[in-house]
Amino acid sequence: MYAKDGDHKQALAALDEALRIRQIHDSYEKLADTLNNMGIVHRSTGDTGKSIGCYEKALRFRNECSSEDDVKSDDIQFNLGNLYHGIDNNEKAMQCYNHALRQRMDTFGENSD
């Protein structure tokens, strides 16, 4: 909600608190979701280093608890690809996009909509 209103500082504060609580009580899936959201907010503030760190941590948590066909992992890869594309690191962006595409094709098939 805060991020949609442009209040990135408040959004990050709420996400930091959610992350703290989830580290105690929740699963890796919830931690990954929170870190992905933090990556999105950091990206929107222009802090690409923190954004990359959040996305990479989110992927590690997803890999700890999910199967290879985890769609949310693909979403994180796609977000990471968008970030790399935005900073003109097109080689890394393509790696992320291709990884997400391969996984989606494995999960849903080549001719799915």
Describe the structure.
This protein is an all-alpha fold and 113 residues long. It has one domain (8-108): Tetratricopeptide repeat domain (Serine Threonine Protein Phosphatase 5, Tetratricopeptide repeat, Alpha Horseshoe), CATH 1.25.40. The chain contains 5 helices and no strands. The protein has helices at 8-25, 28-45, 48-65, 71-86, 90-108. Helix 2 (28-45) runs antiparallel to helix 3, helix 2 packs parallel to helix 4 and helix 4 (71-86) packs antiparallel against helix 5. The longest helix has 19 residues, at 90-108. It starts with 7 loop residues before the first helix and ends in a 5-residue tail after the last helix.
Which range best describes the helical content: under 10%, 10-25%, 25-40%, 40-55%, 55-70% or over 70%?
A: over 70%
Q: Radius of gyration over alpha carbons?
A: 14 Å
The CATH class label is Mainly Alpha
Give the name of the CATH architecture: Alpha Horseshoe
Tell me the name of the CATH homologous superfamily: Tetratricopeptide repeat domain
